[in-house]
From TrEMBL:
InterPro entries to which the protein is assigned, alphabetical: Glycerate_kinase, Glycerate_kinase_RE-like, Glycerate_kinase_sf
Pfam families linked to this entry: Gly_kinase
Record's keyword annotation contains Cell inner membrane: no
Gene3D superfamilies associated with the record: Glycerate kinase, domain 1
One GO-annotated biological process of the protein: organic acid phosphorylation
Protein name as catalogued: Glycerate kinase
Record keywords, A-Z: Kinase, Transferase
Amino acid sequence: ADLVITGEGRVDGQSAGGKVVSAVAALARDRGVPCLALAGGVSGPLDELHALGLTAAFSLADGPRTLDELKADAAPLLTEVAEQAVRLVARRPVY
């Protein structure tokens, strides 16, 4: 793979302590592949996750929203965040 994308409801400092994102990031690191996490929310610090191999984490929350609002809009938010993340990694337009 050229890129690994994983996800969780929330990525934070506790994610390094055994959540799926930490295991996926470590596997990607061991294979020399960038790893992105897409999540409903992201809060730092993420230093331990970066050390495990996470390249970057992106939040679906595009402003103040309730959990119910995020869930209701999850599909279009995920599509937008995924596109922006891939554009950044690809460093070229995605059509």
